[in-house]
Amino acid sequence: MGKQETTRGSRQLARAIREHLRANVVGYLALFVALSGTAYAASKIGPSDIASNAVRSKHIKSKNVKTPDLANNSVTATKLACEGNSNQDVMVRAGAVCIDRYESSIWTAKVGGTRITGPIPCSANGQDCKGEIFARSVKGVAPRGGITWFQAQAALANSRKRLPSNAEWQQAALGTPDSTACNVNSGEMKNTGAEAGCVSAFGVNDMVGNLWEWVADWDEQADGCADWPASFGSDATCFGTGTPSRFPGALVRGGYFSFGSDAGPFAVAASIQPSDSDPIFGFRGAR
Hints:
single chain; about 290 residues; alpha+beta; paralog of FGE (formylglycine-generating enzyme); 2 domains; six-stranded mixed beta sheet; two-stranded antiparallel ribbon; 5 helices; 10 strands; globular
C-alpha cells in the first residue's frame, strides 16, 4: 500500500471517529436533560437537525422545562377539570369556561369560616371588601341576594374567581328548561339545587329563576322592556332608553322567583345600576 493511500485511510478513520464521538455527545446530552430535569440548548446539535447556533442556551432558561413536563400522560383529565376551592365550592366546565354549579353564597373565609346571612361587612362600592367576603358555590343553602355588582365581584376576586361575561353565562345556560321546572312562580327564593329539574346541559343549576344573576358586562341603563320572540320563550329583554340616566346598567340574567314566563335562559336586563342591591339580585362565579 502506498504512502498516499495510507494517509487517505487515516483521514477517513479520523473522520469516522469524530462523527462517532459527536453522536455520542448529543446522545449523552439528551440523556442528561431527561434525567436532570434541567433544559439547556447545545450550540450545535447537527446539520440534519437544526442550523448551526440557531438555538442557544440563552433562549431556554435553566430549569424552565423539567422531566415531569415531558413524561408520558403528564397532562391528565384531572388537571383540566374545574375545581373550586374546597369540596363545598363546586364548579363545572361549560365549554371553555369553568363556572359555579350553584348560585353563590358569601362566607368569612375562602375555606372554612361561616356563611354571612346578615349585613355585608363592607361597602356597597366594594372598595374595602378585600379579605372581608368570599364567594362559594354551595349546594343546599340560601344564595346571597341583596348584593351589589361591586361586592359580588370583590367576593369572587377574594376566592380567585370573577363574574362570568354575558356570553359565558349564556353558554353555561344552554339547555336549561324554560319552564316551571325552575323557580319562577313560587314567590320566594329557594335553596341552591332545590329544583332538581332546573339544570343546564353542562350540569349548572338554577340559571333560570330563583335570583337574577349579575354578569360582568355593563350597558347604558335601560328604561323599558320587551319580549323575545316566542321561539326564544318570550323571555324579557330590557335594553334601550329614551331619556339617558347617564348611569350604567349592569346586566342581570335569568329572571327571578316571581318573574313567571318572562324568566328564562334568554332573560336579560340592563335596567339595574351596579350599585343597586335588591334582594332579588344574586350572582355566581367563573374562572
